[in-house]
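Input (Olfactory receptor):
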Amino acid sequence: MENMTVVTEFIILGLSDNPRLQIPLFLVFLLIYFITLLGNALIIALICNDPHLHNPMYFFLSNLSLTDICCSSTIVPKLLASLMSGDKTISYAECIMQLYFFMDSTCVEIFLLTAMAYDRYAAVCHPLRYSLIMRPRVCILLAAASWTIGFVPSGTITAFVTHLSFCASKVIDHFFCELMPLLKLSCTDTSGPEITLFFEAALISLPAFLVTLISYTFIISAILRIRSAEGKRKAFSTCSSHLTVVSVYYLSLFSMYLRPTSTFSLDQGKILSVLYTTVTPMLNPLIYSLRNKEVKNALRKVIGK
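Output:
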């Protein structure tokens, strides 16, 4: 058995150890981060300032944009600093905080995506009762619950990780302090956090996914009953963006977490992590809003002023 040591810092290997790729990777992630901040901040500002966007769909979208900013800001600045300076160390406390805030933002995003699916269900399946179903108090409660409940699973798993012991090796083969690489690095029994993760996925993420799936089952059924092709196209266009992001997000998350660490591939994990930690937050403003006529009109008003 390897000697256990008191870990005060970790070494994060990053995406590549090729020196020639450090500057190109820095520029790529700097651009991604800039677009993420600019796009999501712009969406929040437009929604807050334009009365025409004060409805449930854009209310949840503004919360989603804030979550995307938080998720990306938890990971990318440290990655950029590492790529620029070559210093790949991260303190134990920073690592634990990064893990916690990443998992928290992930949980919040799952619940917000579920709330948005329910909102689209109400809009398509019950258009006459939509304003009653999605009244302001309900929207505020759904958003508040999304932000509040997210603290529970992330806090529980992070607490388990803080009780793990690490052996002589302190090298994390990843580009941030992600859960799976940390579990593989530990030389003590990781069944506690693994079981907790599985049950939290089963009790939280899976029900949220099922609500989304059921919502879209009813939505598709309602769209198919629309007689005109134009009516079907308009109804589906209100949901296609959300459905696209939900599909990519859940596929990457389930591929990442709903399997034992014995079958976990670090290279695959890096690719999946890049997808939902940096790429998706960048694309969300484009997919959800910048294709939307109401958002474009709000943007034109701001540019005109």
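The beta strands are 9-12, 89-91, 171-172.
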